[in-house]
Amino acid sequence: MPVPNSLRCLVRPSTGLPVSIPRTAASLGVPSAGLLGTPLLAAASFSTTSSRSEGASGIAKNHHRGGKKTFTVKKKAFVLERGKSPLPGERKAYRKRIILSNDNALAVPWLTDLGPAELSNENNVARVMGIPEEVQDQLRASEAFKTTQCWRMFRKPAVLVRKETVDLTRRMDRAAQNNEMLRLVVTGDKVAGKSLMLLQAMTHAFLNDWVVIHIPEAQELTTACTEYAPIPNTDPLQYMQPVYALKLIQAIKKANEKVLSKTFTRNAHPHLPQNIPANTPLLTLANVAKESEAAWPVFQSLWAELTAQGVARPPILLSIDGLAHMMKISDYRTPAFDLIHSHDLALVRLFANAFGGGLKLPAGGAVIGATSRSNAPRCPSLELAVSRREVEQRIEASSKAAGSGSGAETTATATEEVPQRDPYFRGYDDRVEAVLRSVEVLRVGAIDKNEARAVMEYWAASGMFRSVVDTKTVTEKWTLGGNGVLGEMERASLLSMRM
Amino acid sequence: MATPANLLRLCLRPNRRLSTVYSIPFPRPATSRPLSTTQWRGKIIVPTEEEKAFTGEPGPDIRNPGEFLAGLLEEEDITNEEREEAQRMLADWEKLDPKVKREYDTLREQVDEGTRGLRALQRVKRSTFWHEDEVDNDMLTDEVGEDDFEEDDIMAMGHAKLEEHREFREYARLAVWEMPLLSRLAKPFQPPTEQEILRFRYTTYLGEVHPSDRKVVVEFCPSDVPGLTPAQQLKLKKLAGARFNPEKEIVKMSCERFEHQAQNKRYLGDLVDKLIAAAKDPTDMFEDIPLDTRHHKFKPKIRFPKDWHVTEERKKQLGTIREQALLLDESKRKEGALVDGVRTIQEALNVRVDGPVLSLKGRPTPSLRASR
Q1: Residue B31: left (phi > 0), alpha (psi -120 to 50), or beta?
Q2: How close does chain A come to B189, measured CA to CA in Å?
Q3: Among the partner residues A423, A466, A471, nearest to B341 by beta-carbon distance
Q4: Under 8 Å CB-to-CB from A25, ≥6 apart: which residues?
Q5: Which of A337, A362, B164, B297 has the highest local Cβ count within 10 Å?
């Protein structure tokens, strides 16, 4: 029995309140603490009432019976060893990298490289042809390749020559011959190959020594993700984007090195950071842009030189992807915090001007814009203009056919009505419609079975498609791919995990 | 004619009262409102004239036939015959022995006292668990003495079942014998003439009163209106606004503003006249306003494409295409130009294994060995 309890046995029950002896006192060996039953606290003599002093209750309160103390072992937090995490920007670089070759893929023996006239040759329709190394670099420099395209599966980049390709390149050639400007919008369904059509046009331009100015994503210019500044003495006020301009100049320089080094300035450009006299290669002029401060004046000078009349100049291809982003009100703000129309941004204005027909090039050229079906803001004016131009083109073609004698199809298309604005819809943009009023529209549709066969034979010969490419397989994949939508066919046969 | 029967009738007349055993149904609201915090209240029953006249207890002044007859004579709306009769009877009453009259009084008081319990107003107990005393109108029988079997007849439930059966048969007879006669009333359909451009629709609830039985709907096609130029037709469509259906080219208007169907129809007819007159008015032809069809959603009609029908010609065409495809495959196979993905890979592997053999740790590489 512990000491305090045994001592409690000696306490007379008549004292009422339970009185306990503090453990400290007991352990310190307080001399015979109340052996005669006198409690430790001073009780009044001759009183039968129980003591209710502060001290008594205090003692009672302090007393606590030590219960069983539980000792819990805390679990250590589980630390998952993830290894080294990627450095800042590394993930994005991984995501955005462009891989153009695959050493594990088989080399296709019959694959030939494209020559300057191959893409406009009708005999090459439904043939897969390789892109030459030099052009690969040029295309890479102007960011024509995209991560969503399947370049990384094959030994070297190759493209399928389609009917639309030949049509497009012939139009480009015709424009260059006549010193005219081809103004064209490439449209079509999702993953039908609009961006690739743009890439083929650029390939053709590079092969034929054109100057190519390519804007890989129009949204980079209009979604307020790059710096901008007003250009003084412009009315209406325009805005330059110096950082993007620098990037663009560098891309132009890298991609068109050969052509620019053979083209010389007509005028001197003394206002630039580095004095450029007349008869200097344009490459030198482009090299002046080292920092974004000087980028815009350099770009202006470069553009003025490229479009200078009366001297030998190469044809120019202006190409832009994601056209809808260019045809909307941008996310930039004026100093008065009003939204800026995209066409008031100087770089975009250049393209809009070209689409509208306000640009005269000395050696002709082309401006080609590709719409997008996945990353595109709703742009009713663009949709309307494209559909309207398509119908107008059909009507023109049918009237031409009627003029030449065959009037069978004329009745079918002559009844077609040109789409008009919905009078009660507010979202139209007059500036956009004015720009797109007279462009040509090229619809990239589905490929036919010959083309499908050609591309599937290329896949199989590369070791990426494990099946015999006969009519049955081709028809099967063609049907699975939405009756010949090239991207869907790729998804159905190349990108499926089934081996 | 102081026959005893008449006398007795008259004597009992002051004691006549309505039966006081009302069964007051448990009042319940017809449609129970959910989540109402207000106390429901029963319908206030306004007593009819007759109920007001007979309040149950006779007036304190009428205690014997003499007093009643005297009161009757004072009333003005009785016939002369009745008056004579009443006078005669009053004279008879007066002749009676006062002892008899007193006996009558005591008898009346005793009867009053004895029937007091019966006359007390009986209320249905509201708080009963199943509302047992409530009247249920949906039952076949009235449930009074239903289970009493007198051994002379079938029970009440049986009678009720028979009654139900009779009702069914009545309607069956109607259906068989009288409904076919309705066809006599049928009129042959006559398509509307060119002059009848309005089509009206009425609603009937077969004799029931309904708030929308007065509604009239009119439909017409603006191009059917005689004597309208295309410009006037367009103006008419614009004036009709959201009542114009651009898909069917029909203007549809309704009216239920007035109490009677005929009034509503008249209003619609006048309105159409007004619309046509306004459309013909050349002062403002609304040329600057395009036809507004935002109220209407055009549904694309999906039809099976004509080109997809497998006709005999198409079958032949497909046959030739397939034949050519097979021939192409066959010729390619003969030439060795048919590309086989699996074989290509295999060949490439065969070329590669000439070098050092790769093998997985601890495992043979059967496929490579087999290919060698």
Answers
A1: beta
A2: 39
A3: A466
A4: A33, A40
A5: A362
Residue A218 lies in a domain: yes
Tokens representing B279? 């459309």
- B261's CB contacts (< 8 A; 6+ apart) are B202, B213, B214, B215, B216
Which residue in B has a C-alpha nearest to residue A499's C-alpha?
Answer: B342
Whether the complex's predicted ipTM surpasses the cut of 0.85: no
Consecutive H or E run containing A316 = strand A316-321
Task: Give kind and range of the element (H or E) at residue A249.
Answer: helix A242-255
Dist. CA B270–CA A250, nearest whole Å: 77
* A contact test, residue of B339, B340, B351, B367 with most A CBs within 10 A: B339
Q: Please enumerate in sequence order all residues whose Cβ is within 8 A of that of A426, keeping only pairs 6 or more positions apart, or say none.
A: none
d(CA A171, CA A169): 5
* Burial (0-12, 13-18, 19+ Cβ within 10 Å), A447: buried
Q: Is B329 helix (H, G, I), strand (E, B) or coil?
A: helix
Structure tokens at A135: 């052009």
User: Which residue on chain A is closest to B330 by alpha carbon?
Assistant: A470
Q: Are B61 and B68 in contact (CB under 8 A)?
A: no
Angle between helices B312-335 and A471-480 (to 10 degrees): 120
A26, A166: one domain: no
CA distance A487 to chain B (A): 20
Could A468 and B340 be called an inter-chain contact, meaning their C-beta atoms sit closer than 8 Å? yes
- Tell me whether residue A82 is in a domain: no
Task: Assess whether A181 and A46 both reside in one domain.
Answer: no
Note down the domain range covering A21: 3-62
C-alpha span between B66 and A496 (Å, rounded): 116
Q: Are residues A133 and A227 in the same domain?
A: yes
The beta-carbon neighbor of A463 closest among B290, B322, B345 is B345
Task: Count the alpha carbons within 13 Å of B176 in the hemisphere toward its beta carbon.
Answer: 6
CB-based contact B341 A470, cutoff 8 Å? no
A460/B344 Cβ within 8 A: yes
Q: CB within 8 A of B276, min separation 6: which ones?
A: B225, B228, B236
CB contact under 8 Å between B339 and A106, yes or no, is: no
Identify the closest residue of chain A to B348 by CA–CA distance. A106
Number of domains comprising chain A: 3
The answer to whether A460 contacts B328, with C-beta atoms less than 8 Å apart, is no
Per-residue pLDDT of chain B (372 residues; tens, 9 = 90+): 445 566 556 555 545 444 444 444 444 444 444 454 544 444 555 555 655 555 444 455 577 788 888 888 888 788 888 888 888 988 888 888 888 888 888 888 899 888 888 888 777 666 777 777 666 767 777 777 778 888 888 888 888 899 999 999 999 999 999 999 999 999 999 999 999 999 999 999 988 889 999 999 999 999 999 999 999 999 999 999 999 999 999 999 999 999 999 999 999 999 999 999 999 999 999 999 999 999 999 999 999 999 899 999 999 999 999 999 999 999 999 998 899 999 999 999 988 555 555 555 555 444 444 443
Residue of A nearest to B333 (CA): A470
Domain B194-320 - what CATH class? alpha beta
Chains A–B, number of C-beta pairs less than 8 Å apart: 47
Q: Decide if B290 and A424 are in contact by the 8 Å CB cutoff.
A: yes
Query: Are the C-beta atoms of B96 and B7 separated by less than 8 Å?
Result: no
Question: Where do the CATH 3.30.160.20 domains begin and end in chain B?
Answer: 194-320
Q: How many CB atoms lie within 10 A of CB B334?
A: 9
Chain A contact residues (CB < 8 Å to B): 106, 423-424, 457, 459-461, 463-471, 475
Contact predicate A127/A454, CB 8 Å? yes
Residues A141 and A271 in one domain: yes
CB contact under 8 A, B348 and A457: no
Q: Is residue A7 part of a domain?
A: yes
